[in-house]
Amino acid sequence: MICYSIPAATxxxxxxxxxxxxxxxxxxxxxxxxxxxxxxxxxxxxxxxLRCSFPPRSIQGKHSHSGYFGYVLSGGKFTVEDDKGKRxxxxxxxxxxxxxxxxxxxxxxxxxxxxxxxxxxxKYEPVH
Length: 128
Fold this sequence. Notes:
The chain is an all-beta fold. The chain is about 0% helix and about 55% strand.
């Protein structure tokens, strides 16, 4: 999930299932069509650096992140679905921002190109 400090997005309402209250895996444990969407580029005791790529129409199943900084390598359109609802998001190449720990959310690439982002997860800011 990608939840940066982003410009206003269209908020779509929908009924959220109890599934969002269950414990969720981190982004490295989630696959789409048998492939991991995130690649671990570096990890130490404090941070983990991931490159996550979302092909057109791909869905990154429910996952979570520690607090992180994100940098968009290749912009695109996607939806974020979490316990607050479903939002349409568009991010441009070069856009960046920080996010607090992000509990369970689902990312769907709704665009026509591969959306790619570099995430620097802060292990010292875990999801609670």
